[in-house]
Every structure is written in C-alpha cells, then in structure tokens.
Write a structure and sequence with these properties.
The protein contains 9 helices and 8 strands. The chain is an alpha/beta fold. It has a single domain, classed as TIM Barrel, CATH 3.20.20. An 8-stranded parallel β-sheet has the order 7-6-5-4-3-2-1-8. Bound molecules: pyridoxal-5'-phosphate. The site of pyridoxal-5'-phosphate (PLP) has 14 residues, from strand 8 and helix 9. Pyridoxal-5'-phosphate binds next to strand 8 and helix 9.
C-alpha cells in the first residue's frame, strides 16, 4: 500500500497559499508519479536528464517538469523538448547554451539561477559574488528564448536550523539585489525556489515561492 496521495495531501495542507509545490520524483517509478498526478499534482522535479527523458513520455502531457539537478552541457538538447523550468542554471556558459538550444527548436524556456550557499563543496551553483558580477555585466538578461524567473538554492545538510535560516536569508537578499538590479524591468523574475522535505518550513519563512519536496511525498529513495 502506498501513501503517496495521503502524504501529498498532508504536505499541501501545510504549505501556505502562494507557495507552489514541486514534487521531487527522482528515483521513483512512473506508477508512483501517476499516483501523485491522479491526486492532482502537476509540477514534478527530476535531477537526471536520462531519467526525465525516460519518464516524461510515459506520463500525461500537462505535467510541468522542473529540472533540478546539475545539468551537463551535452544533455541540454535532450531535455529541451520536455522541460518546463530548468532550476539549476549554474553558469553563464550553461545559460548561453540553453538559449541556443531553445532557439534551435523555436521555444522559450523558463529557468532559475542556482546559488551556492551551502557548506558542502559538492553542491553546484553560482557563488553570490559570481551571480552579482554576471548581473552587473549584463550577462544574465540578454537571452530572447530564456525567461530568467528567479533563483534556486539548497541549504547545507545539517540539523542546525539557524545555519539553514541564515543561508536561506542570504539567498533571499541576493534574489532581491538581482531583482532591483539587472532584473528590475523583468516581468518574470519572481521565484525563490528553496526548501526540501526537512527544511521547507524554514524556507517558506524566508520567502520561498517554490518548495521542492521528495521524501515527504514519495518516501525514501532506493538508489
Ligand atoms: C532531491 C532533491 C530535493 C528533494 O529532497 P527531499 O529531501 O527528498 O525532499 C530537492 N531539491 C533538489 C535539488 C534535490 O536534488
């Protein structure tokens, strides 16, 4: 017996109005995703290109797929037909490539800029200094086939919720600096994607508009 519908409803009941849920379905079978879909969920998050490409054609077309993992340059073309939002833009080079591939198939794609604020070196993303410099140099706003819709970040993997809160606050302040800076004329730059199963409540307190929740909905992943 799966509790996906029940888990989803519990999470949704706690998320305040104005915050949207990305159900992170990585490592879970399409049957499990279909259960969440039947319970009304439409935003799903995957972090590996191959897995997204394999799953998307098997599920209804009105699902909006968010790509949330490190995106290798040679995978951009493959995910482009399926992805609704690429949340994990971690360099200007990747942004340029996404522009090129979106233009190639004549579509526009929404993206978020991933910021690195966690202690773990393994996590990817722009450093705060890098993203602010890129903004000042007009390297974030010159893409006709890309709507930069905001920022995404992961906090450190820790039980210290004060540390997590500080990191989310830094993300929010950086988001606001960009919004008042190079994105001040953008109608799209409105999203702050932060918070996972163990820290989304902290993220919401710090202004998250999108939370990315996997384990609390689908249960533990079997890697
Ligand atoms: C896996 C993942 C999540 C979800 O994590 P849970 O702890 O299972 O909720 C959120 N964001 C990103 C970028 C992830 O890779």
């Amino acid at each position: 017996m799966s509790n996906i519908k029940e888990n989803l409803e519990k999470v949704l009941a706690k998320i305040p109005a104005g915050v949207r849920l990305v159900a992170v379905s990585k490592f879970h079978a399409v049957e499990e995703l279909a259960e969440a879909y039947e319970a009304g969920q439409r935003l799903f998050g995957e972090n590996r290109a191959q897995e997204l490409i394999a799953k998307a054609p098997q599920l209804p077309e009105d699902i909006r797929w968010h790509f949330i993992g490190h995106l290798q340059k040679n995978k951009v073309r493959a995910i482009m037909p399926y992805v609704s939002v690429i949340e994990s833009i971690d360099s200007v080079k990747l942004l340029e490539l996404v522009e090129k591939e979106a233009a190639r198939i004549d579509r526009t794609v929404d993206v978020l800029l991933q910021l690195h604020v966690a202690k773990e070196e393994t996590k990817s993303g722009f450093s705060i200094q890098e993203v602010l410099e890129a903004g000042e140099n007009n390297l974030l706003t010159c893409y006709p086939h890309v709507n930069v819709c905001g920022v995404m970040a992961m906090a450190s993997l820790t039980d210290d919720m004060e540390q997590v809160a500080e990191e989310f606050d830094l993300v929010r302040r950086t988001y606001l600096t960009l919004k008042d800076g190079c994105f001040d004329e953008s109608e799209y730059f409105n999203e702050l994607s932060m918070g996972m199963s163990d820290d989304w409540q902290v993220a919401v307190k710090h202004g998250a508009t999108l939370v990315r929740i996997g384990t609390a909905i689908f249960g533990p992943r079997k890697y």
